Amino acid sequence: MTILDVQHDVSAFRRAIRDWLAEVVPPDWKARMARASNEEYIAFQRWWMAERSKVGLAIPHWPKEYGGAGLSQRHLIAVADEMARADAPQNRLFTISLIHMPGTLLPHGTEAQKRRYLSGVANGEVWCQGFSEPNSGSDLASLRCRAVRDGDHYVINGQKIWSSNSMYADHCLLLTRTDPNAQKHRGITYFIMDMRSPGVEVRPIRQANGRAEFGELFLTDVRIPAENMIDAENNGWRVAQATLASERGVISFEGGERQRYEIEAFYRNSLKTGAAWLRDVQLHREFISLLAEMQAARRLLRRVLEESERQGASASVLPSIVKLSSTVLRQRICSFMVRISGVDGQAFALLAEEPFGSPMFDFMSAFSGTIAGGTNEIQRNIVAERGLGMPRI
Amino acid sequence: VTSAIETASTLDQATLDALRESVASVLAEQCDSIALHAFIDGKNALDKALWAQAGQLGWLGLGIPEQFGGLGMGAEGLAILHGELGRHSAPGPYIATLSAARAIVETGGEAMRATLLPRLASGEVSAAVPATLDARGLTLSGAGISGTLRCLGSADAGFILAPADDGWVIVDLTRAEVTVAPMWDRTRDVIDVRLKEATPVSTLPDAMATRASLTRAMALAVAADSAGGARSITERTIAYMKTREQFGQPIAGFQALKHRAADLATKLAVADEMVRHAVQRMVADEPDAELWATLAKSEVTEACVFVTTDCVQLHGGVGFTWDFDPHIFLKRARLNEVLIMANTALRDHAAAALAAITASGRSALELEL
Fold it and tell me: A307 — phi, psi (to 5°)?
């Protein structure tokens, strides 16, 4: 019996995942990764993807016709919850491959594109995203990376930035400008770019948290076959909305659940060791308030999932509200952990074995929540304009 | 105790929606801004009119089982009612009376339930409870109960549910000295009750349980009231910002103000979930119900003070006038904030509860998927 064989019974499905995780996740993986080089980390990520693939949990959310298991949202939530509970590794290297690429190709790709690319992910194909540019961040639609038609190809020249794991990527979801004279949202075209094409140069960007997950893409006369265009020429902005919308949902839910287990483990450990902060009444009160907000945030993440199953959810600003509340909360939790850790917490360390074992790393990393995926300032515009009906001027 | 006398643990959504709509429509019609301002200025008896209607419509029996003349809708029904009352800043002794009723339902003796609950459900009598539950105002001696206690409840409250030394008692107020203490929040009555060797109507069998039950009920009521009030004044403020023009445009178009409004909307979403979480834990009668009810009170009332304060400011000059709505909601929020006990003390109680639950090997963070 494999895990997918018992999917008709959600509790049996859960138990099967739990058993499999207990068997396959190395108990010392966090300690190992805390000391790992970039190459070791990437190898570990590929190993984990391969393990998931063996039991059919690599791409369980995709339709069966494209190699997935066609699981319902209820099952995906169970998978995410069990992964969080077991503190299993996340598949960060494959975030774009698992979320953004199918979120784009399933609604907008051609049949040939879906057949070619969707099945590749289970075999370990890594995708990156070429959206932002040095001069086009929040104002994404002002992007200038040029694509010019040349026979049955397009020739690309320009620069992309904040492209996670682009150093290791096989393919890129690329936004380009095809009509510089059109109104800015109307001259954009969306391509699938082979990262091994001549003219693609990737330089890693070292982040404030000490790691280098992002890359900067320099594209010089890169030739992309016209068949790699997603949807029609100059229709890329509409397609990009599908990519951006795919970030909402189960992945954020899993993040919220992981944080719950982390916090709980941290608190149990504090009780066990008689941590000093427990005796500081002010800190204790602050902690309990953060816990209340965390519980509310977890409930809100569940609401986003409920809403995403209903019709017309795309108009909702709830995902923006949830992003605002949970990313700021994450920052405050990490800030709390930094403050209670004293000078020891300032000692340089990247990944840590214990939950919040490297509070400064977590704190510095928390900015990825408030800045990436549309800054919180952009989210506030969305909430005010689309949610509260405040005029756009 | 609760589960033994209340059969329905969870009500279906349609029933709850219908309740909300019915309460909202009555209040929208009778407790609009104009009626509320007139009440605050002593020009109508809105509190009495609403109370009479609340009795007829069954609102006062929402937390009381059907066998005692109530509707048996428990914490879910009560959260809806208090939320809507908060939305309209409705005047009346709802928090005191409905919370006292809950404490009697959950911890009163059989005779006490049979005598008092039907009268509370019909609105025949209202109740008073201590404004802060850590107050030590009353003493019990052989001669009876004496002392002074500041209470939430109206001047004509029929009885008080309060601690006297180590016990919890119910004392008839018809012959007691009751003085109304004028508050900045004119939408609720606070009274000073002076007792001299009064004979209690009855004594609650388990003082600790009564105290815990009243704390839970008041905490949920105050949190729901605050969440409703904060949402309502935010909606009113944003509506105003869309009409108020400066520099040739509605001020709602300025990004600095849009971002403030978005932050308020985010706080409101979080506050609503805190109230819902407390309700869910209370309905399921979980060991962490009191923890989440007290945290809902401490966190939501503070959020509500923040929101209502910002709503005064976002109105500009008119926000500082008596004739506009924000100050009414701000003052109600400030009273809510200090009821039951200081929020810092509530957090200390919650922290102790969290430690106890964790030490027993359970989790206080369970959520349904």
Answer: -65, -35
Other C-beta atoms within 10 Å of A177: how many?
23
pTM, rounded to two decimals: 0.95
Q: Which residues of chain B make contact with A281, given a CB cutoff of 8 A?
A: 348
Range in A52-56, A329-333, B331-335, B359-363 the model is least confident about: A52-56
Residue B65, helix vs strand vs coil: coil
Task: Look at phi and psi of residue B42 and say left if phi exceeds 0, alpha if psi is from -120 to 50, else beta.
Answer: left
Kindly state whether B125 is in contact with chain A, defined as any CB-CB distance less than 8 angstroms. Answer: no
How far is the alpha carbon of B151 from chain A, nearest alpha carbon, in Å? 27
Q: Does B261 touch chain A (CB under 8 A)?
A: yes
Question: For B317, which DSSP code?
Answer: G
Give the pLDDT mean for B20-47: 98
Reading the block at residue B79, the tokens are 């959260």
Judged by DSSP in three states, B343 sits in helix
Q: At what angle do helices A10-24 and A73-85 cross, to 10 degrees?
A: 30
Summarize pLDDT for A152-184 with one digit per residue, the tens.
Answer: 999 999 999 999 999 999 999 999 999 999 999
Mean pLDDT of A82-111: 94
CA distance A35 to A39: 12
Work out the minimum CA distance from A194 to partner chain B, whole angstroms: 39
Token pair in block for residue A299: 């409930």
Type of residue at B97: T
Dump pLDDT digits (tens) for B199-230: 988 999 999 999 999 999 999 999 999 999 99
Q: What are the C-alpha distances in Å from B48 to residues A323, B31, B45?
A: 44, 12, 6
Strand B127-130 with B159-164, pairing: parallel
* Catalytic machinery residues of A: 247
Predicted ipTM > 0.90: yes
Closest Cβ–Cβ partner in B259, B355, B359 for A377: B259
Give the pLDDT confidence of B293-318 residue by residue, as tens digits: 999 999 999 999 999 999 999 999 99
What are the tokens at B55? 């009795």
Flag whether residue B10 sits within 8 Å of chain A, measured between CB atoms: no
B352 interface with A at CB cutoff 8 Å: no
CB B56 within 8 A of CB B49: no
Give the span between the Cα atoms of B69 and B55, in whole angstroms: 11
Measured between beta carbons, which residues in chain B are less than 8 angstroms from residue A321? 265-266, 269
pLDDT category of residue B106 using cuts at 50, 70 and 90: very high
Helix (H, G, I), strand (E, B) or coil at B364: coil
Q: How far apart are CA B141 and CA B155, in angstroms?
A: 26
Residue A125, pLDDT > 60, answer yes
Place A312 in a pLDDT band, splitting at 50, 70 and 90.
low
User: In this complex, which of B241, B295, B296 lies closest to A288 when CB atoms are compared?
Assistant: B295
Is the separation of the CB atoms in B186 and B235 below 8 Å?
Answer: no
- CA–CA min distance B104, chain A (Å): 29
Query: A153: closest CA among A222, A225, A212?
Result: A225
HEC profile for chain A? Answer: CCCHHHCCCHHHHHHHHHHHHHHHCCCCHHHHHHHCCHHHHHHHHHHHHHHHHHCCCCCCCCCHHHCCCCCCHHHHHHHHHHHHHCCCCCCHHHHHHHHHHHHHHHHHCCHHHHHHHHHHHHHCCCEEEECCECCECCCHHHCCCEEEEECCEEEEEEEEEEEECHHHCCEEEEEEECCCCCCHHHCEEEEEEECCCCCEEEEEECCCCCCCCEEEEEEEEEEEEHHHEECCCCCHHHHHHHHHHCCCCHHHHHHHHHHHHHHHHHHHHHHHHCCHHHHCHHHHHHHHHHHHHHHHHHHHHHHHHHHHCCCCHHHCCHHHHHHHHHHHHHHHHHHHHHHHCCCHHHCCCCCCCCCCCCHHHHHHHCHHHHHCCCCHHHHHHHHHHHHCCCCCC
